[in-house]
Structures are given as C-alpha cells and as structure tokens.
Amino acid sequence: MSENNLKVENSKIPAEDIKNPKLKEAIEAMQADGSKLNIDRMITEVVRAKFILPANVTQIPNARTQNGRTVMGNSTQVQFRLLENNQTKQKFFGVFTDIEEMNKWNGTVGSHKVVTDFDSIAGMIMDPESNTAGFVINAFGKSVTFPKPMAISIKQQYDYMRRKKNIIENGTQVRVGEPEEYPIDMMAALINHLSTEPQVNAAYLRMIEKDEKKGYFIVVDFLGDMDKTFEGIADAAKPFIDDEEALTIMPITMEFARQAVKEIEPFYKKAEE
Known about the structure:
Strands 1, 2, 3, 4, 5, 6 and 7 form a seven-stranded mixed β-sheet that branches. It is elongated and about 65 Å long. It is built from eight helices and twelve strands. The chain has helices spanning 21-32, 36-48, 99-102, 118-126, 148-164, 184-194, 226-237, 255-260, and strands spanning 2-4, 50-66, 69-84, 91-95, 112-117, 134-137, 144-147, 174-177, 200-210, 213-222, 247-251, 268-269. By secondary structure, the protein is of the alpha+beta class.
C-alpha cells in the first residue's frame, strides 16, 4: 500500500448512503458471462456510480500574513491509499461500491471516506503526477480492474457523447469515405498545429456524409483533455471551412471512428522521440 496526494472531486453524499446494487449485479453478470452486452452494461453502471475512495486526512500547521501580522492556521492534506500489484509493482486506486466492500481492506476502517465518481477517478489517473496504472473496484471482493488505457478510453467516449449528444444518432444515414478533394491548405495548417500538441499521437482525415450533408471527419488518437485538444483542432481548421457543421472530430477510442480509419494512413503522426 502506498499513498497519493492528488485532488479529487468529493461528493456531499454520505459514504454510508453509497450502495451501488445495480453495479454489483452488473459485475457479477459480466464475470459469469463476459459477453459484449454484459461488459457494456457493466461499464454504463461504472460511469453512473458513486464510489468510496479511502484516504488519510491530516492537518498541517502553516503560517500566513494578515494585516501585517503572522497568523497560524492549518491546511488539510489528503493522501489517497493505493493498491500495488505484487508482480508488476504497478499502483492502482482502490475504489469501493459500499462501506462493507471497503472494510474488507485491512486498515481502512478508520480512514476518511471520500465519495467520488468515475469522471474524477479517470481525471486523477490521467494526471501526469499520479503515476498510477488504473483503478480497481472492490479489490477484496468480486473485483474488476480498469487499466489506465481503458479508463481513458471510456472517459473520452462518454465525454464525447455527452458533449455532442449522440451526433451519430440512431436512424441518421451516415457514409464515410475518401474526400472528393483533399483540403491541402487545411491539412498543412492542422499538421503545423498538431506538431505543437505532444498529447496527439496521430490524426486521420475522412469525408463524412450525414443525411446528404457532406463534411470533413477528423479522427484523433490522443491522451489528455479532449475539449482542449478538439478546440485547438477546430480553431486550426476554421479558416478553411465555410460552416462549423462541416467538421466532425471524434476520438479514435470510439468504435465508429476506429472502423472509419481502419485501413488508412494518418495525415499526421507524432515524431518518434
């Protein structure tokens, strides 16, 4: 066991009220039958759930100047307990569906109980200072491990869907293919921009047609802040398109995007270090 000082969004819901029966049922169903349907159902419940994250909270004396006088006070330091894989020595956040599951971890009975959610946990995992390999739900019961790449992929997909509100809606006629004419100036501007974005590994360009309306479709392979990354790409492309709706950007972690670029080369690829 080790500790981590990262910040996490703390819900005001009492830890004693956290139960997650639907998530526990979904985990059991997935472990009994690992079908895609059961895996997707379990992931949906993970994204919706509130978790308990055990932490050690200490008060640290400090001094500050106020009206020319030194005033003594305290600051709060929160250290999150981490699980360590005995073989790989990788560290994981240990989160729990309820108090009973958390108490199976020896030594956590008196710990501070932070109530948090998937978004916040994924954000901590993505923080370069965390040095964690993912998170584990109910590590001492019927556990499920989410490695860092999977946690990031799920967050990117759900962030995108929440932001775009299902841009590829059911019933929408969608066709993806080669652009009729490659926008050389736009691609040059995008390559120039992406070369300054170390979190982007590759980018692909396709044409997308939705309900007979055509536009450019950029698929991005990246890690990090999706809003910031996509806004930068949109800003670089904006001078070369007539309508914002003529540009669709999607993370490669989404199945639709991954299939759309399956057999093509990226127009931008991060230089190897």
